[in-house]
Design goal:
It catalyses: L-methionyl-[protein] + a quinone + H2O = L-methionyl-(R)-S-oxide-[protein] + a quinol; L-methionyl-[protein] + a quinone + H2O = L-methionyl-(S)-S-oxide-[protein] + a quinol. It contains eight helices and twelve strands. It is an alpha+beta fold. The radius of gyration is 20 Å and the shape is globular. The chain binds the ligand Nc1nc2c(c(=O)[nH]1)N[C@H]1C(S)=C(S)[C@@H](COP(=O)(O)O)O[C@H]1N2 and molybdenum atom.
Length: 339
């Protein structure tokens, strides 16, 4: 039994409001009012409306037992060999810490969604390759993982909410998946999408979010060596709360760019409209590169809480990955690159 108590690194809402809370509050009121109006019109009471809304986000925080599942069909591929090129300036965050402090709004807005992801079914799972490619196609996740060269990389991970971790991801360079997809030369962006299934993910019943979760990169970003498709963590197949069975890790950008539980990649010549940007473009942009000198409209980005240590450290430009990625942005002076 886990007892929920505030931890040192949980920044008070008054200081740094997580992505959800702002909308959480404003849109919550709208959503609650809409549900109240709708259900009242149908003859239900306001109390029913309130409990319906409570149910959307799972009114209680207690553990939900996960149904028994077959062992992961790719388990034999782990642990993969660590790539020594990717080192850290800090200790790896212990798994019990990083796996109990996650953002995955499909399952609710708390950091404790590891208790609620049992309903995520990761097999069968397919990944669709769509849009401007030689041949659009759909591939089974296990065939895809086995076709790719797996390696382990230690990456820093910096959330826009001013906390960070260091995580040993296993996966393959996104550039390998781009090669596999054979995009047409006119494609300039890749759009990546999470599943949409309200039965698996109760958070997707909340009507005021633009589901499914969408993210995107330019082709230059997607083929940069740092852009990593993640299939495992801590030497094992990915745990559900980290975005199983396939998620992105782009460590020079704020965490919200690293989309989880991907089902579709669409190659396109139009810049994708992303989940957070369409919710609130004045706070969350397309580029979202980490920069301590550019504050979020509601809090500073100068420092970050290292989850699990109680330490607050200085944030680095591009989250410390400037040598690898700064060149991608040298001709984009007029763009809002840092939010
Ligand atoms: N589909 C989906 N992807 C997502 C999110 C989400 O809510 N849904 N949250 C993002 C945010 S805000 C962060 S910080 C990271 C969190 O990744 P982690 O839980 O592995 O630390 O996932 C990102 N990817
Ligand atoms: Mo985040």
């Amino acid at each position: 039994m886990l007892i929920k108590r505030p931890r040192r690194w949980e920044i008070p809402e008054s200081e740094a409001t997580p992505e959800a809370v702002f909308f959480g509050r404003r849109r919550f009121l709208k959503g609650a009012a809409a549900i109240a109006a709708a259900t009242t019109a149908l003859g239900a009471t306001q109390a029913d409306a309130a409990s319906l809304f409570g149910n959307l986000f799972g009114g209680d925080d207690s553990a939900k037992p996960a149904a028994p599942e077959a062992p992961d069909p790719t388990a034999d591929l782990y642990p993969a060999k660590r790539n020594p090129a990717f080192t850290l300036d800090r200790a790896v965050t212990p798994e019990p810490v990083s796996s109990t402090y996650n953002n995955f709004y499909e399952f609710g807005t708390s950091k404790g969604i590891y208790r609620d992801v049992g309903s995520l079914r990761t097999r069968p799972w397919t990944v669709e390759i769509a849009g401007m490619v030689e041949t659009p196609r759909t591939v089974g996740i296990d065939d895809l993982i086995r076709a790719m060269p797996l390696e382990e990389r230690l990456y820093r991970h910096r959330c826009v909410e001013a906390w960070s971790m260091a995580v040993p991801w296993t996966g393959f360079p996104l550039s390998k998946l781009v090669e596999y997809a054979k995009p047409l030369s006119g494609a300039t962006y890749v759009r990546m999408e999470t599943f949409l299934d309200t039965a698996m993910a109760p958070g997707q019943k909340a009507p005021f979010y633009p589901w499914p979760y969408v993210e995107g990169l330019t082709m230059a970003e997607a083929t940069n060596d740092l852009a990593f498709m993640v299939t495992g963590v801590y030497g094992k197949p990915l745990l559900k709360q980290f975005g199983a069975p396939l998620r992105l890790a782009v460590p020079w950008k704020y965490g919200f760019k690293s989309v989880k539980s991907i089902v579709r990649l669409t190659f396109t010549d139009k810049r994708p409209e992303t989940f957070w940007e369409s919710l609130q473009s004045s706070e969350y942009g397309f580029w979202a590169n980490v920069n301590p000198a550019v504050p979020h409209p509601r809090w500073s980005q100068a420092t970050e809480e290292v989850i699990g240590t109680g330490e607050r450290v200085a944030t680095q430009i591009y989250n410390g990955y400037g040598p690898e990625v700064a060149g991608l942005y040298k001709d984009l002076g007029s763009e809002r690159l840092f939010m």
